[in-house]
Amino acid sequence: MRNIKYIILHHSATEAPGDGSAVADAIMLNHRRRWQISFPNYVCDYHYMIGQTGKIFKGQPEELPSWHATNYRVNLESLGVCFLGNFEVNIMSKEQFNAGVKLLKELVSKYGIKSENVLRHKDVVSDITGLRNSTLCPGKNFPYEEMLTSVFSLFKDVGDDYPYKEEITTLYNLGIVLGDNGEMRPKNCLKREEGFLLIYRLLKFLGKI
Questions:
Q1: How many CA atoms lie within 13 A of 132 on its CB side?
Q2: Top-level CATH class of 6-152?
Q3: pLDDT tens digits along 192-207
């Protein structure tokens, strides 16, 4: 089994009508043709592809590397997940976003991948240029920050359906709401000491103390 440390996010940079089946099939056929001489059992540059309706297509088996990240070492230690569509132009559908979050949660849990190791293709240092941002992939409209926030819950007892998750995330990033042992306990009454601590952190953030 490979030592998988990274997940690299891509877009197909193409239109992907319907559930994306035709585009996924074309991508896999193209990739097999490209690598069939060197790697006869090669399936696809991506381990997973996700269509705009939320349909997930399996490509390269997880136990095998694929050539998707423009970095040889990262290729050996990563999974490639491609969202079908052109997010340099278009906006991701809710169904595609939710399917992506669900898949990423499963992969992150399975391989113990840290949030800082879920990267966009453009975040990877290219072996060709020696630089990041050597590609636009996965596009300027790709909801990267929103996806990471949804995949990596800040608190064990705050799920995706919590109505104030975005606000809690903002307060956490500001150092105001930090929780207790990985829990926020939203249904518990706020103790006086906890209230004073929140006020202190807020005033400190505002530069009032």
A1: 6
A2: alpha beta
A3: 888 889 899 889 888 8
